[in-house]
Design goal:
Layout (H helix, E strand, L loop, with lengths): L8 E6 L3 H11 L4 H4 L1 H4 L11 H14 L8 E9 L9 E11 L4 E10 L5 E10 L5
Antiparallel strand pairs: 1-3, 2-5, 3-4, 4-5
Length: 137
């Protein structure tokens, strides 16, 4: 089996619904009105509800845990994340993963994680994840 190489990129398009935001709020107990109450959110600089930061970055573990460069059997060891712009429901986004380094002795890879709003082309989240997978790295 061929190992994943440094520089390899993967892309994944996604969006979240208000039902996703509500389910995340119910699961975590984070019922902050900035996420759930349109009237309240209208009084904030965002003017409408925003998605929870950790819900928006959950796409990292979803994709990396089920697809390349990680995939089933991967162990997510670390994620450093910067939330740069708010994210909104029913908006198209694309996450770009790029393999930055591979330590084949330890079967570990560092993968950059960036989310872009497809309409504005602006980055909303950036960071780096560390994964272990004996089959792929």
């Amino acid at each position: 089996m061929e190992k994943i190489q440094v520089g390899t990129e993967y892309r994944h398009r996604f969006s979240f619904s208000q039902a996703d935001v509500q389910a995340f709020a119910d699961l975590t107990g984070d019922h902050n009105p900035i996420h759930l109450d349109a009237e309240y959110a209208a009084t904030t600089p965002f003017k409408r509800p925003i998605i929870h930061g950790h819900l928006s970055s959950s796409v990292f573990t979803k994709y990396l845990g089920m697809n390349k460069p990680g995939g089933p059997g991967s162990v997510y060891m670390k994620q450093v994340t910067e939330y740069l712009r708010p994210m909104f429901v029913d908006t198209a986004y694309e996450v770009v993963f790029k393999v930055e380094s591979v330590n084949s002795q330890k079967s570990i890879a560092e993968i950059s994680t960036e989310v872009f709003n497809l309409e504005t082309k602006k980055i909303t989240i950036r960071g780096t994840g560390t994964l272990m997978n004996k089959e792929n790295f």
